Amino acid sequence: MEFPDLGKHCSEKTCKQLDFLPLKCDACKQDFCKAHFTCAAHKCPFAFMKDVQVPVCPLCNNPVPVKKGEIPDVVVGEHIDRDCNCHPGKKEKIFTFRCSKEGCRKKEMMQVACDQCHGSFCIQHRHPLDHSCKHGGRPIGAAGCAAARASESKPSGALNTLSTSWLARRLRWKVKR
């Protein structure tokens, strides 16, 4: 043998093989060959120090401490029942804003508030005329509502100027009364 100091013998009592690339056990700090370097293969007396696992709650992703001798599944189950902040059976309501119009039972995701009476309404009753709003300024009449709808659609050509002038005259007449 040219290199008698090269390599180390396996620390396993039944092996004692000369290994040129020995592996050191993290727990007991002894050298082992490839076949015996795991804690289970050489029956490491300090394996309990290495085999520490902390279970994580599947709902809230927080670590759950487990004492020695306890079953991790039971401890995680108790955590879910008592301490867990996330409850899968309890769902948050999405449609929370109920329409204030009498007889309407619709709910909306976002609050649609009236500028005049500050009530919360559904999309169908959001305009002051649609929910018979009587607060604030004078409510818009039927002609004003028709004018607003006509201006939104915006027909083209001569019909547009004719209907616009007619609506303008009609609104002026309503305002004067």
Automatic annotation (TrEMBL):
SMART domains hit by this protein: ZnF_AN1
GO cellular component, one term: endoplasmic reticulum
GO MF: zinc ion binding
Keywords annotated in UniProt: Metal-binding, Repeat, Zinc, Zinc-finger
Gene3D superfamilies: AN1-like Zinc finger
Keyword Lipid biosynthesis: no
Entry's Gene Ontology BP terms: proteasome-mediated ubiquitin-dependent protein catabolic process; protein targeting to ER
Family matches, as Pfam families: zf-AN1 (PF01428), zf-C2H2_ZFAND2 (PF25403)
Residue span, AN1-type domain: 4-52, 93-141
Keyword Nucleotide-binding among UniProt keywords: no
Protein's name according to its UniProt entry: AN1-type zinc finger protein 2A isoform X1
